[in-house]
UniProtKB/TrEMBL annotation:
CDD domains with a match to the protein in the record: ASKHA_ATPase_BT3980-like (cd24013)
Taxonomic lineage from the root: Bacteria, Pseudomonadati, Bacteroidota, Sphingobacteriia, Sphingobacteriales
Pfam families associated with the record: DUF3822 (PF12864)
Domain of life of the native organism: Bacteria
Protein name (record): DUF3822 family protein
Length: 263
């Protein structure tokens, strides 16, 4: 997809904000003005950026937010974590260099230690050295918080690329956040049932939160078999556009819209 508004003017570039959502298959580029009007919306395969996308990426944006998936993630209780002790967690990561490990203090007393895919991270760091980088899991967890009941079980599912992040809350406490390769809904079905089995849950769960797609998708339809309460995570931020296709695409990009709230 390649959308550029007639209101996009390069001489106003210093007042615009560039939002990037990148994974291993697709990039999404969104440029908004100070009133949150969408001026540019582009989606393209990561390995084949369009000429127009290359032009946008060459512009001197002063405000840039880049959302990336994590390569590795470890959750630990905040009350036992010390910022100077990242080295003791290196065995849990693909990359043993502690300098490539980042820390996010989430709510509910949980701290996340994570790494990006270094090639993916460096690709954007080299383009925008002063950009804010936000791991997608942080946005998903923050968006989900207002929908987590104090009692009962809630399963969260964030769909992107050919992957699904599955996270589980029991009685308001985050118990699990794992990433799985999912090519089909049957793959997702397998991992959901495995989590149910490991945590002693029945084949129906109190609530399922869905992110990255909608309830009418094949993912939503399959997940609805396991709950009477399937809710789609919505972005708190609002962007403005009159283009119907841009509106449709933005409905799947809840993490991109709210990335700025995590900085």
């Amino acid at each position: 997809m390649n959308y550029t508004s007639e209101e996009f003017h390069i001489h106003y570039i210093s007042s615009y904000t560039l939002f990037v959502n990148s994974d291993y298959t697709y990039d999404h580029l969104v440029v908004v003005d100070e009133q949150k009007n969408v001026l540019v919306f582009m989606k393209y395969k990561t390995t084949k950026p369009s000429t127009d996308a290359m032009k946008i990426l060459s512009l001197p944006f002063q405000h840039v937010f880049v959302t990336l998936p994590h390569q590795s993630l470890v959750l630990t209780p905040t009350d036992v974590f010390q910022d100077g002790e990242k080295d003791i967690y290196t065995d849990y990561f693909i990359d043993q260099d502690a300098d490539h490990t980042y820390v996010k203090h989430l709510s509910f007393g949980i701290t996340g230690l994570y790494q990006y895919d270094l090639l993916l991270y460096n690709r954007w760091k080299n383009l925008f050295s002063d950009a804010h980088f936000i791991p997608s899991f942080e946005i998903v967890v923050r968006q989900a918080q207002s929908n987590i009941p104090i009692q009962g079980e809630t399963l969260g599912v964030h769909i992107y690329d050919s992957q699904a992040d599955l996270f589980l809350y029991i009685d308001g406490a985050l118990q699990l956040y794992n990433t799985f390769e999912v090519q089909t809904v049957d793959d997702l079905n397998y991992f959901v049932l495995s989590i149910f089995k490991n945590f002693g849950l029945t084949h129906k769960i109190q609530r399922i939160l869905l992110s990255g797609t909608n309830e009418g998708s094949e993912w939503g339809e399959r997940l609805s078999k396991y709950t009477e309460d399937l809710e789609v995570i919505r972005a708190k931020s609002k962007w403005i556009t009159s283009d119907d296709e841009v509106k449709k695409q933005m409905s799947y990009l809840n993490i991109l819209l709210d990335s700025q709230l995590c900085v």
